[in-house]
Design brief:
- The complex is a heterodimer of chains A (about 400) and B (about 100).
- Chain A has no helices and 29 strands.
- Chain A is mainly beta and about 400 residues long.
- With about 100 residues, chain B is α+β, with helices and mostly antiparallel strands.
- Chain B has a single domain, classed as Beta-grasp domain (Ubiquitin-like (UB roll), Roll), CATH 3.10.20.30.
- The chains are: A mainly beta (about 400), B alpha+beta (about 100).
Chain lengths: ~400, ~100
């Protein structure tokens, strides 16, 4: 019997929601790390019991947590589960994210643009996104603020920057969005281990074809009125990018405004906003079995940043974009003023495909029929920052 | 014996009680106390001082003997009452709501 495990990060802790394949009755575990901001929790495709979590605080900084038993127990990598710390030097520095200042890369590597247009040094703030390797449970990537990509190959104990990204040379044109200058999207190509896509607010999308050594911006076709040259190579506020693993060359993007698609691994983009009520939003995701079926949640911007007209509507396109239908069955259609943040939607791989999203109001909604109908799993969590799903056999 | 009181979240991380005691070799300063604290509880590295600059994280304060010592040099001696164990060093999260 299949099972589903939903990993929810919130402003005040993490929650693990589990159900059988029917996805009707749910068990709720948590809060884990109560009181801390949990930007992201994600499981390893190679070992579903291996989970990584980003725990952070404006007071105490960044902590990385790991579970080796599917979320029942957690520990900071390097300190075995249940073991009290021993005297002596630390055995691991799992929360140490230090930008590359090696002689090979030069120092400082680069500066970035501040809100007022002046140049500003890179300052580490937090991990936004953790992306475990598709094949090795001990290898995991971290997208951080200020934007950079780190990798651990020892289960999260030690982290090293893939500095070729910041070293690309466009750093001085990167700038923070309202949420900070974050690297929030990491997509590993299942057919090509050397290819990784990432996205940064507000710089744009980038791709490596050599395992992270060198990177190129992939923003041709994007148009952003909030930068001096709307068609510039970098500076675009990409909110999220999604891919169906069966078609790794096809990407879907929710930009600050505009929903976009690329059929050539990001080399060029075409707008597919079509009949959406507003083409601003944060999340975008792709059906697990129908690679032309995509989901977004339109948000009214820039003035409000909640759903339009007090109605929570997921929009689905079954034609790869342009033609969208509102999905409302089970979702509040009056007096609803929530937001859905960029990492807060995910799909399972059951048949029918399950779709999940979390809101700033603390609800996590699930659809067990690809979006035709929805029901809340939980209604009153802290504001949801991220939602990930594991389909377990 | 130096007494240190941590904020709640750091007690949870360190699996520690409300008050810790530490042995500190040599002069008792902010730096030597934090060095001893991080040696005993390595998971606290980076949570009180920046990993690289070793500067106090901006939303944390150091109090002792009813004084704010946050802006004292890290190598300045802490009050005698802290060095003798009569009074604790308090590591405080700044009041910032939420």
């Amino acid at each position: 019997m299949s099972k589903v495990r939903v990993l929810v990060g919130t402003r005040k802790g993490a929650f693990v929601l589990t159900s059988d394949g029917k996805r009707e009755k749910w068990e709720v575990s948590g809060p884990h790390f109560a009181g801390w901001e949990m930007y992201h929790v994600k499981g390893s495709p190679a070992d579903p019991n291996r989970l990584y979590a980003s725990q952070s605080s404006g007071w105490f900084g960044q902590i990385i947590q790991r579970s080796d038993d599917g979320g029942k127990t957690w520990h900071q990598p390097g300190t075995p589960p249940g073991e009290s710390p021993a005297p002596g030097p630390p055995r691991a520095e799992s929360n140490k994210f230090v930008y590359d200042t090696s002689d090979e890369s030069g120092k400082p590597l680069t500066t970035h643009q501040w809100y007022d247009g002046t140049q500003h040094p890179w300052e580490f703030k937090r991990v936004w996104h953790l992306e475990p390797s598709l094949t090795d449970p001990d290898t995991v990537y971290a997208g951080v603020e200020d934007a950079a990509l780190f990798r651990s190959t020892d289960g999260g104990q030690n982290w090293k920057e893939l500095s070729g990204l910041r070293g690309h040379g466009t750093g001085p044109k990167w700038q923070p969005g309202a949420g900070g200058m974050c690297l929030h999207t990491i997509i590993l190509d299942p057919g090509n281990p050397q290819r990784i896509y990432i996205a940064i607010s507000a710089a744009g999308a980038f791709r490596t074809d050599d395992g992270g050594k060198t990177w190129k911006p992939i923003n041709r076709g994007l148009h952003s009125q909030y930068i001096p040259d709307p068609h510039a190579e970098v500076g675009h506020c990409v909110h999220h990018v999604a891919m169906n693993p069966s078609r790794p060359g096809v990407l879907f993007m929710q930009k600050h405004w505009d929903v976009m698609r690329s059929n050539d691994a990001g080399d060029s983009w075409q707008e597919i906003s079509g009949n959406l009520p507003t083409d601003f939003g944060f999340v975008i995701d792709v059906h697990a079995h129908e690679p032309e079926t995509i989901y977004v949640v339109p948000i009214k911007s820039d003035s409000e940043h909640f759903v339009p007209d007090g109605k929570l509507r997921v929009y689905r396109s079954r034609t790869g974009g342009n033609e969208w239908e509102a999905l409302t069955n089970g979702l509040p259609q009056s007096n609803c003023y929530v937001n859905v943040l960029r990492d807060a939607m995910a799909v399972d791989s059951l048949d029918k495909c399950g779709v999940y999203f979390g809101t700033s109001g603390g609800q996590v909604y699930a659809s067990a029929d690809a979006g035709d109908s929805w029901a809340p799993i939980v209604r009153d969590l802290p504001a949801v920052l991220s939602v990930e799903v594991q389909t377990l056999s | 014996m130096i007494r240190v009181i941590l904020p709640q979240h750091l007690r949870t991380l360190a699996h520690a009680g409300s008050e810790l005691t530490l042995e500190v070799e040599g002069p008792v300063t902010q730096r030597s106390v934090l060095d001893a604290l991080e040696a005993r509880y390595p998971m606290l590295r980076g949570t009180i001082r920046d990993h690289v600059t070793q500067q106090r994280r901006p939303f944390l304060r150091f109090f002792a003997c009813e004084e704010d010592l946050s802006h004292e040099p890290p190598d300045a001696p802490l009050p005698d009452a802290v060095a003798s164990g009569k009074e604790p060093l308090l590591i405080i999260g700044a009041i910032a709501g939420g």
